[in-house]
């Protein structure tokens, strides 16, 4: 099993490259796969090949899709007037699970981070501006851009940058509320979040 | 992403069948794979296919191999006179890592468990007896069988059963020592292990 060309050894090596998977976990997974009915590793291999060959970013919004347009961009029932900007596809999926949004999305695939050398040209900002831009003298179709970006340091930088750019192009630019999560004890909420929840208080 | 035929959704489903991997972890792994350079998911798929198509039990000892005989059975430098019996291939690999054994192995692929309906015919015991059996009037090549089986309830059942069978076929049947692990505080060692360590004490 220590020969480099052994298939089981090779599988352990490949699995241990997954995030959060060390050699011990990879070995456990590989033994599960080698003792499972052959259909299972074959189906997993097929799913991986399909993802590698067919899945890429949607030409419009950046969501992952096996088609030219993603499921949301190609859905005629979604509201074209509201555009929700997220940093990652995972955030888009989380918002979809909440069921609270029926507009379109735009995925930045990153956040601005001057310290790490990530500038506006490194994330999907140009295509966002194209989507909301006015068409000649006519206003663009988007009337509200919702920035669904988590308020980290990079998030705040990106929020400020996008707000300044979008403010001239779109009637309304909003950000999702920051505050105390539903069901969380105030005692255990961090002070920055509590401060924001106080400042953003609403009338009953 | 909620359509059944979406490749990414399908990959998440397949990954979440791995032991210890729930839907959240599977989603995290799938997003890592979809954003990684295409070579990585392709190489992982290839490794899985190789394992599914080529790896099976060694015809002699039961170790996993892509050849007819495993690396250890086909190694002429190993000692034919000593045979180490393990329950799982993982245990064989652990013993190989210890570097303390230069004989041959036999993998049972299970332990006797009368309560779960696992009897001698369900694990590789018949092939073990064939390997150690005398050839006519001549003694068999194996002079010692080492039972490297962990002392659980099923382990003890298997140890007793194998000892009674092998005692008539092999000059020497031994089991690996049970005792306090190197570096462990006696304070934290369970009482059964401490009792065994006391009973099996050796002269200094």
How does this structure look, described?
The structure is a homodimer of 204-residue chains. By secondary structure, chain A is α/β, with parallel strands linked by helices. Helices cover 38% and strands 12% of the residues of chain A. The first copy, chain A, has two domains: 7-54, RecR Domain 1 (Helicase, Ruva Protein, domain 3); 64-203, Dna Topoisomerase Vi A Subunit, Chain: A, domain 2 (3-Layer(aba) Sandwich), CATH 3.40.1360.10. The first copy, chain A, is built from seven helices and six strands, in the order H-H-H-E-E-E-H-E-H-E-H-E-H. Chain A has a four-stranded parallel β-sheet. Chains A and B meet through helix 1, helix 2, helix 3, strand 2 and helix 4 of A and helix 1, helix 2, helix 3, strand 2 and helix 4 of B.
The global form of chain A is globular
Largest interface: A-B, 51 and 51 residues
Rounded radius of gyration of chain A (Å): 22 Å
Give the DSSP E fraction of chain A (strand runs of 2 or more residues): 5-15%
CATH hierarchy, class of the largest domain in chain A: Alpha Beta
Distance from first to last alpha carbon of chain A: 67 Å
Low-confidence stretches of chain A: none
Count of individual domains of chain A: 2
Fold-level CATH name of the largest domain in chain A = Dna Topoisomerase Vi A Subunit, Chain: A, domain 2
**Main sheet: strands, sense, barrel of chain A:** 4 strands, parallel
At CATH's second level, what is the architecture of the largest domain in chain A? 3-Layer(aba) Sandwich
- Number-wise, the strands of chain A total 6
What structural category arises from helix and sheet content of chain A?
alpha/beta
Q: Let me know the average pLDDT of chain A.
A: 91
SSE pattern of chain A, N- to C-terminal: HHHEEEHEHEHEH
- In terms of quaternary structure, what is this? homodimer
Per DSSP, the total helix count of chain A is 7
Strand order of the largest sheet of chain A: 4-3-5-6
Q: What portion of residues of chain A is helical?
A: 25-40%
């Amino acid at each position: 099993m220590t020969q480099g060309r052994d298939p089981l050894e090779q599988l352990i090596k490949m699995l241990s490259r997954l995030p959060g998977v060390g050699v011990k976990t990879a070995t456990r997974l590989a033994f599960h796969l080698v003792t499972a009915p052959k259909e299972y590793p074959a189906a997993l291999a097929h799913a991986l090949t399909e993802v590698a060959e067919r899945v890429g970013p949607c030409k419009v919004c950046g969501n992952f899709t096996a088609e030219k347009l993603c499921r949301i961009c190609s859905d005629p029932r979604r509201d074209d007037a509201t555009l929700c900007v997220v940093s990652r596809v995972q955030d888009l999926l989380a918002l979809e699970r909440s069921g609270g949004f029926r507009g379109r999305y735009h995925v930045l695939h990153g956040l601005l981070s001057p310290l790490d050398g990530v500038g506006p040209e490194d994330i999907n900002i140009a295509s966002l501006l194209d989507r909301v831009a006015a068409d000649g003298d006519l206003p663009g179709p988007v009337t509200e851009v919702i920035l669904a970006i988590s308020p980290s340091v990079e998030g705040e930088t990106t929020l400020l940058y996008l707000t300044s750019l979008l403010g001239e192009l779109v009637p309304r630019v909003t950000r999702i509320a920051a505050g105390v999560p539903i069901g969380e004890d105030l005692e255990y909420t961090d002070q920055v979040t509590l401060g924001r929840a106080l400042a953003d208080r609403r009338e009953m």
